[in-house]
Amino acid sequence: MNCISLFGPRVIQKISCYFVVARKLSDGCFGGNKGDNGHEFIEEPLKRIWRSSDFDLVLDEKQNVHEYENRPREYFSLRRSFFENAKIHTRRVLEVLQQDGPGFDTKAALDELHIEVSGLLVREVLFKILKQVNYASKMRCAKLGYKFFVWSGQLENYRHTANTYHLMMKIFAECEEFKAMWRLVDEMIEKGYPTTAQTFNILIRTCGEAGLAKKVVERFIKSKTFNYRPFKHSYNAILHSLVVVKQYKLIEWVYQQMLADGHCTDILTYNVLMYAKYRLGKLDQFHRLLEEMGRSGFAPDFHTYNILLHVLGKGDKPLAALNLLNHMKEVGFNPSVLHFTTLIDGLSRAGNLDACKYFFDEMIKHECFPDVVCYTVMISGYIVAGELEKAQGVFDEMIPNGQLPNVFTYNAMIRGLCMAGKFEEACSMLKDMESRGCNPNFTVYSTLVSYLRNAGKRAKAHEVITHMVEKGQYTHLLSKFKGYRRC
């Protein structure tokens, strides 16, 4: 069933042949600090190895599946009522918290609500507060969130979970209350809660920007309360988190610590380390790791192939990529939509749109049908190359083929139309996306407004901004549109 278990060093040697030429690729193709350059197609699948902040809850739900199946219909009615009540109580709690200020006893007002506090209610309230955080409100959000957190934690029939601690930590992090966040971590440990990969994720995201990432890693390596499941060991949990926050140099250091501590490398370790070497532009070391992986008896997995295809795509090596795809099929590992998308994205960034079209057609020929992301990659490639007509052709194929354009697809098309001076069509496309239930994000509005202004169409740009404001969207970002004044 697991065909990759049949792979061995010979397979790796064969794959390595495709990469001999890659050693000679220019640094410009492998610079680690030149923007994302399409790396999301590698990072996102790696992130999804484990990304749920409610991992424990997911396990609990799986354990209770059979129990749920045998429940009477009345049970589900009660559950629906429970969720509806939680929403109502969340709204009431937030109304009380908004009144907080001098002379107002928030704790007494919350007590007077006489509501039953549950884990769902606490998470809903904290999540709503987290969503409200911005530059102007961060001090107040931190204060209100913590007041509610302390109040609910003191109730007799309720006990915080690791997840509610994590939510409160996120609020502190967003509000830049770093000392308070660390105090919460210490409190969490003192009360017997395990620190998990999610705890580490929150801390490393925050402290990575503050230059304290290495100290956070050292603390978690030494921690005896670090619950690193579902990973094999704590080092893999840490390495995975460092990929998420793009701490590639730190990945190298952690790997050396892992070896010194006597831990064995597995396929996840190799994938993370190879990707880090690639992002740092260390292609020779990338190649050596691939060979070492084969000698150690590890077969390429889904993520390994994804990394390799992206390297070949960015290096404009379509023939080597084709050989690798054929090899995958030979060993029973059929390339997925993501594999093709990763390759097409890399090739489009290398400027080889003919190869992009070839692989796009090949995947359809082999009944691997493109999704909205793959279509968007093709469209974006054509737009960047100034091939608006071809981009429009791909766009027009989407809906008949069952793929609705998303906000990124529309943004690419609007940008392309503006670049071609077709401003009426660009504005029409904005209306079209709204009519299809696809709400524009701020980037879409910003793209259209910027091009309209640069073309001297300031009145039309003003109309677009006014339309955005009337819809009640992104009003907190209005200052980014210089010169705009509300009537």
TrEMBL record:
> Which species?
Prunus armeniaca
**Keywords attached to this entry:** Repeat
**Protein name in UniProt:** Pentacotripeptide-repeat region of PRORP domain-containing protein
Q: Which InterPro entries match?
A: PPR_rpt, TPR-like_helical_dom_sf
Q: Could you confirm whether the keyword Repeat appears in this record? A: yes
Q: Does the keyword Nucleus apply?
A: no
Pfam families (alphabetical): PPR, PPR_1, PPR_2, PPR_3
Query: According to the lineage, what is the superkingdom?
Result: Eukaryota
> Where does each PPR repeat begin and end?
161-195, 266-300, 301-335, 336-370, 371-405, 406-440
| UniProt GO MF annotations | mRNA binding
Recorded family membership: Belongs to the PPR family. P subfamily.
